Amino acid sequence: MLFGLSTLNLTLVHWFFKNKGSNIKLIGSGQFGGDSTPDIVIENITTGEKKIWIMSYSAGSFTISSEVLVTTDAIFSIVGIGDFNSDSNLDLVVEELTASNSPLTNIARKIWFMNGTSKVSEETFLTFVQEWRIKGTKDFDSNGTPDLIVEQENVGRRGVWYMTGSKLTEGFIFGTVDPSWVFPHQ
Q1: CA nearest 78: which of 30, 12, 141?
Q2: What is the C-alpha to C-alpha distance for residues 1 and 145, in angstroms, rounded to an integer?
Q3: In contact, 39 and 28? CB cutoff 8 Å
Q4: What are the backbone dihedrals phi and psi of residue 75, each rounded to the nearest 5 degrees, phi first?
Q5: DSSP codes joined into one string, the chain
Q6: Which of 35, 117, 139, 156 would you call most buried, defined as having the most Cβ atoms within 10 angstroms of its Cβ?
Q7: CA end-to-end span of the chain
Q8: Nearest one of 161, 167, 140 to 84, comparing CA atoms
């Protein structure tokens, strides 16, 4: 979600990193609060609690105007943001968490369809081995639906899973890099 940031979003990201706690993971930003100010989606990596910070921007400063707890299943982690059902509301992409150390353990990937800050439904779009992890979203094929940036953990292979709505249509590996290179919000 950090790709293609505007100046306002870059200012928001700077504010976030200056003000967040060490146990808070930035998922991304988007307009969940119904205004033009980007809001922040976060997850507490200690408790699993997920929130949307509804932000206000005035006179060059950001403030949290409200904090909305996203009521979810605790065994899932938010890994991406995008409008997957073309309803003009941003949705959340999640991956199942598991205690298994085996890279070949199958885990579910879901889209939580949102109406503003409320989850209204969900759909499992893929159950696949956990060694492939979703790292972000961006519409690479210009079909109006965000695609998923993926990484094969500990190997460094990176690719794109192309989506049409909530359906995975194709996968593409675009390269292998040193596994120590990480995506900025991970």
Answers
A1: 30
A2: 13
A3: no
A4: -85, 10
A5: --TT--HHHHHHHHHHHHH--TTEEEEEEE--SSSSS-EEEEEETTT--EEEEEEEEETTEEEEEEEEE----TTEEEEEEE-SSSSSS-EEEEEE--S---TT-EEEEEEEEEETTEEEEEEEEEEEETTEEEEEEE-SS-SSS-EEEEEETTTTEEEEEEEETTEEEEEEEEEE--TT---TT-
A6: 117
A7: 11
A8: 167
- CB atoms under 10 Å from CB of 67, counted, come to 12
**Structure tokens that stand for 77 in this block:** 């982690």
Question: Given the structure tokens 């070949």, which residue do they identify?
Answer: 104
34: tokens are 């119904």
